[in-house]
Amino acid sequence: MTDYDYDLFVIGAGSGGVRASRIAEGHGARVAVAEEHRIGGTCVIRGCVPKKLLVYASAFAEELQDTARLGWTFGGMRFDWTALRDFVSSDVARLEKAYIDTLDAHGIARFQERATVAGPNKVRLASGREISARYILIAVGAWPVVPEFPGNQWAITSNEVFHLETLPERVVIQGAGYIAMEFASIFNALGAKVTMVSRSDRILRGYDESLTERLLKITRARGIDFHFHDPIVRADRQDDGSLLVGLEGGERIAADIMLVAAGRRPKTKGLGLENAGITLGDAGEVPVDRHNATCCPSIYAVGDVTNRIQLTPVAIREGQAFADTVFGRAPRVVSYDHVPNVVFSQPPLAGVGLTEAQARAQGLKIAIFTSDFRPMKNMFSTRVERGFYKLVVDADSERVLGVHMIGPDTPEILQAVAIAVKAGLTKADFDATMALHPSMAEELVLMHSAA
Prior knowledge:
Blueprint: E1 6-11, H1 15-26, E2 31-34, H2 41-46, H3 48-64, H4 81-105, E3 109-111, E4 115-119, E5 122-125, E6 130-138, E7 142-144, E8 170-174, H5 178-189, E9 193-197, H6 209-221, E10 225-227, E11 232-237, E12 243-247, E13 252-255, E14 257-260, E15 264-266, E16 299-301, H7 312-326, E17 341-343, E18 349-353, H8 356-361, E19 366-373, E20 387-394, E21 400-406, H9 410-422, H10 427-432, E22 448-449
Parallel strand pairs: 1-2, 1-6, 2-3, 6-16, 8-9, 8-14, 9-10
Antiparallel strand pairs: 4-5, 5-6, 7-15, 11-12, 12-13, 17-18, 18-21, 19-20, 19-22, 20-21
């Protein structure tokens, strides 16, 4: 391997790239990483970590409304967006330093600049320097898509939303996926007027419809407006700095910010992969096989840039599998079955395994078990919001094919449930498990047939 400057050069220092770098170095490889933005990638810098902190803050606003029934009285309470924003920013900086310290502790060379592929075994830095490597790993992630329309330069995405100078009073959000729903819940709970617009006819495609229909009903009751089949067609800046957002149906909505959450596209534009004979997929993704290998024997790719499942834990698993396979002589492949997923809306929605629609589309004979209940925590709220749990079960084997939940704390419950589904446990196994009372989780072992 001494014919090259490095054994491995990683383009992108997000969760997948950093994990691959660290494991490869542990197997004895000489590793370098290039990152054109901040170390840590989407999740740490501009994604799930700072967003979850905003979720906590906004959920606390909701709980404060219920304090009187809990026996508490507060005076002079007020919300300071600047304080929250600056705390979130400081925690992101802390995590970025932890990532940098990890790379440095493992002796991994860092290049804080853009790198592109100059050939099968060569990368070119923005400074003009060329570096050779026996293997190149593409781990640049994905980037928000902003549709073309007059005035789209006034739009912000999930990248910029964490840096707002002030808390907006009126928010228009384009999109109906998990990012759109999460930020809609955040701004709504913090007191903003939220309007959601979408080309689609419903929210959260791919999630179980029993849950998404309930979430839509709850969020509407909380004051979020929805415009389906009615995307943004233009936006005009007003003299006071606000926006007038025009929709396809003709309505114009006044807003302080216009947040576009219309999907994320692999960040491969200008990456130079054609210099290694690699043709991108229809969505701009890097095509790879089950071992994360491209058609070029020296180039691999992991994470969102492959457009398989855009989740941080998946990227981490892929990064480790790549390093173990290529440098550890221990070939590994990642299983994409039963990947748990969560929408940190208010209330949160979580699921693992097949939805009812997916199971029926596969022609499976299934039985559905549900629990529709009012969580004890919600008894303190003036809002009558019910939780809903659903099991999708193979009618012949009784194996639980999927579990889907909406209600308080469902993300914390789901991880243990995912283990059970991954292990292939049956409805009888669930039923035989003693309930933990009083808890919401006990509903999982007390479900009755929906028939």
